[in-house]
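Is this the right way to post structure tokens for a design question? Let me know if I should format differently. Anyway, here goes:
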């Protein structure tokens, strides 16, 4: 019985379902998805900052940036995030994008 479970679990981790159909499982390679989200985040940041050459926005534009990306504003969580990723009332594009990609893909970016 244990061997069957181990075999099933290994297939699950490797992205193979029991019947061989991987369409319902999350992709183990998120590179394309990450590139798409990176592009969206960069464009949204440029839109909110007003220029592709300005790599800073004021922290009070954080909500506008999330709305431009079509995400749901979780007020408490995003207020904490805004405070953590801003420096002197400004949010850098690089810091925002690092947080955003980790947040979207539920990776290990820990703010608290």
């Amino acid at each position: 019985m244990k061997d069957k479970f181990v075999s099933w679990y290994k297939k699950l981790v490797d992205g193979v379902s029991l019947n061989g159909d991987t369409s319902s499982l999350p992709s183990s390679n998120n590179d394309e998805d990450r590139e798409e989200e990176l592009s969206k985040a960069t464009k949204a940041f440029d839109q909110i900052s007003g220029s592709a050459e300005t790599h800073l926005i004021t922290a009070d534009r954080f909500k506008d940036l999330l709305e431009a990306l079509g995400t749901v504003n979780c007020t408490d969580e995003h207020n904490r995030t805004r405070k953590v990723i801003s420096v002197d009332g400004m949010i850098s594009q690089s810091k925002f994008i690092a947080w955003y990609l980790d947040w979207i893909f539920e990776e290990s970016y820990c703010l608290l």
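Format looks fine. Someone answered above. Worth noting: Residues 22-26, 108-112 have pLDDT under 50 and may be disordered. DSSP finds five helices and three strands in the chain.
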